[in-house]
Amino acid sequence: MHPNNEVELSLEDAQKVSRLIDNLDDLDDVQNIYSNWTASDEVMAQLEEDE
Question: How far is it, in rounded angstroms, from Cα 7 to Cα 35?
Fold first, then answer.
């Protein structure tokens, strides 16, 4: 699936959404997770450093 509209997130918001998606992924009842967020290359690099 590809979103029609993407929302670019700041570092703080991207960290929050990333944690939310990780927590949802850990639940047994959740089969698929879709999102429409994107982040700049710099924000993505910082997210990868934090993990």
Answer: 9
